[in-house]
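Hey, quick one: can you model this chain's 3D structure?
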Amino acid sequence: MGSSVEAVVAPRGVVDLRGEAGAGFVVAYPADAVVVVSGLPGAGKSTLLRRWSGAQVRTVDPRTVHEACEAVMPARLPYAVYRPWARLEHFRLLRSSVRRVGPLLVHDCGSRAWMRRWLAREAARRGRELHLVLLDVGAATALDGQRARGRHAGVRVFARHRRGLERLLAAFTRHVRSGGPTPTPEASSVLLLDAVSRSRAQAVEFGANGLGAGGH
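Sure thing. Here's the predicted structure for all 216 residues.
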């Protein structure tokens, strides 16, 4: 794991690491877990997934499907015309990936509750758990991230995701402070990260028994 990693985080329930600085850590999940990494466009989801992905971990990213569809379409055809086809292909890929054996990482905006519930049902039918990683970096940081990567979500799309995620994060903050039912009962765990703790999440392990935050 390297000398910069001092702990293994094995999330159960809601684990809030926002604002916590320190050494790097490894996140540990069950062997067949479906882990959804969510956040605003530009929040760092793709960067985190690249850091976590490996030869033995499948990753489903809607951008991959977008680019595959774009490659076979005439250059003059705007993406809005074939967006429904791209979304259908993405759902097909998600469904087939959940049905396969082995861990799965999923890139998702996180603002759509119906998507989480659908994924949780698909996973549960195969004896798998759904786990969430929610990046809370704020709109300004996310917009900076979009500029850095050279890709921009539309103003209305960004605003829609922002509203949905702000409601979800506010519900999690209330849950952390005062208890009560979790806003996402379909998830076996929710790991809340911000720009500080996101950089500390060095790697992911599946099937390992870890001790540390979340296992605490």
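One thing worth noting: Helices lie at 45-52, 62-72, 79-99, 113-124, 139-149, 155-178, 195-200.
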